From TrEMBL:
Protein name in the entry: Cytochrome P450
Record has Iron as a keyword: yes
GO molecular function: heme binding; iron ion binding; monooxygenase activity; oxidoreductase activity, acting on paired donors, with incorporation or reduction of molecular oxygen
Biased composition (Acidic residues): 75-87
Keyword Metal-binding attributed: yes
Region (Disordered) residue spans: 73-98
Pfam families: p450
Lineage: Bacteria, Bacillati, Actinomycetota, Actinomycetes, Kitasatosporales
Length: 430
């Protein structure tokens, strides 16, 4: 299937589809691998996406793209959609292929979880619960909030600060930088004339953040703490150790990529629960439901909708289509998650769905290395919101969405509620 140049990309990135892209994805799945003439190949079905994610011939390194195969079809706001790399820094390991990807990912994972530090996330659970409780306590005296501004955004930024060991007195600066970077990625759809200025301010914030992180790295080198940044600085394994610029790039990746994904996971999750009040009531009465529920949210309405700008290192034949070397390939993860050839009744939200091998965190060597933390953050956040908000309801449906077609989520989610239930631990203590 060959389309007029740019037509599919323009449809996929058209803001008119942002609130509900799934009918468009259903149309695309009729042709598992579609091609915009002289443009990208669009892959929209589960098994084809899964196969390519595990195919070593598909590169994540944009330097392997043939420029003639990747014309600028996408509006500038979305061209910068998932740019977590900072100006002047080498690509993060998300943008590299093995063996260099494997070396950097292994070094980043060592202080983050198994097998080297298997209890890091477990020991964070109490701190995450306290942060969530403090944010919800801040709703006291209100009867309405914007979930994004008052909860979904500040929660993961605070977590990243604590994880990296940012001093608490510097956390407000970190929050301000994260706000500015997010604004630069996603201008207000009603104020496009401000997009260039927002990107300029965003680049300035990124530069200031890079300077701050560089200074913090040097402090941790001189006086290590028990935070993850100190562990990254001091860790040396069979792969060696990270250079200073690699440390800086990895820290920036943790902030931008990890933060934006979690904001959308929590916000999309609460939106889905409020649209399914019977499930919200079940979660309030049975907190154990949250584990399979978050997995279903990652399938049903994932925070990362697609992986653009992949490219074959050699010809790949898939679903009757030959994708040439150097071509641009877009993998529509969210479409694959709704593929009826893989999931029974895929447009239904079923929190106890069986065999839920979704693509919400990708798959293969580039599967999201922050997935365990994102899962834990979402599980705690949604459980406590369900438990403590009395009579929550949407004030706007559909809400206003961000312009970003890749990291898709509401820019605002206004909620009303009747009151707050007591906080504290399950036994009632504060």
């Amino acid at each position: 299937m060959t389309q007029t140049q740019g037509s599919l990309v323009r449809q996929i990135t058209d803001y008119a589809h942002r609130a509900d892209p799934y009918p468009l994805y259903a149309e695309l799945r009729k042709t598992p691998v579609a091609h915009d003439e002289e443009g990208p190949y669009i892959v929209s079905t589960y098994w084809e996406i899964h196969g390519l994610l595990h195919d070593p011939r598909l590169s994540s390194d944009a330097r392997n793209l043939d420029p003639r195969a990747a014309p600028e079809l996408i509006e500038k706001d979305d061209e910068e959609d998932d740019e977590e790399d900072e100006p002047g820094l080498p690509p993060s390991f998300l943008r590299l292929d093995p063996p260099e990807h494997d070396r950097l990912r292994s070094l980043a994972m060592a202080p983050f979880g198994p097998p080297n530090t298997p209890r890091r996330l477990h020991t964070m659970r109490g701190e995450l619960t306290r942060i969530v409780g403090e944010l919800i306590d801040g709703f006291e005296g209100r009867d309405r909030i914007d979930l994004v501004d008052h909860f979904s955004h500040p929660f993961p930024v605070t977590v990243i600060c604590r994880l990296l060991g940012v001093p608490q007195e510097d956390e407000p600066r970190f929050h301000a930088w994260a706000d500015t970077v997010a604004a630069g990625l996603d201008p207000d759809p009603d104020a496009d004339e401000d997009a260039a200025e927002r990107r300029r301010v965003s680049r300035q914030a990124r530069t200031e953040l890079a300077v701050y992180l560089s200074e913090l790295i040097e402090e941790r080198r001189r006086a290590p703490g028990d935070d993850m940044l100190s562990a990254l600085v001091g860790w040396e394994g069979p792969e060696g150790r990270m250079s200073r610029v690699e440390l800086l790039s990895t820290a920036a990746l943790l902030l931008v990529a990890g933060h934006e994904t979690t904001v959308n996971l929590i916000t999309n999750g609460m939106l889905t629960l409020l649209r399914n009040p019977e499930v919200l009531a079940r979660l309030r009465n049975d907190p154990h439901l949250v584990v399979p529920l978050v997995e279903e949210l990652l399938r049903f309405d994932p925070p990362v909708q697609m992986l653009p700008r992949r490219t074959p290192l050699s010809e790949i034949d898939i679903a009757g289509v030959t994708i040439p070397r150097g071509a641009s390939v877009w993998l529509l993860l969210a479409s694959g998650n709704r593929d009826p050839q893989r999931f029974l009744d895929p447009d239904r939200f079923e929190p106890q769905r069986r065999d839920n091998q979704h693509l919400g965190f990708g798959s293969g060597v580039h599967s999201c290395f922050g997935a365990p933390l994102a899962r834990l953050e979402a599980q705690i956040a949604l459980t406590e919101l369900a438990r403590r908000l009395d009579g929550p309801r949407l004030l706007e449906d559909p809400p206003t969405y961000r312009r970003n077609a890749v990291l898709r989520g509401p820019r605002h989610l206004p909620l009303a509620f009747e009151g707050l239930r007591p906080g504290g631990s399950p036994n009632g203590s504060r």
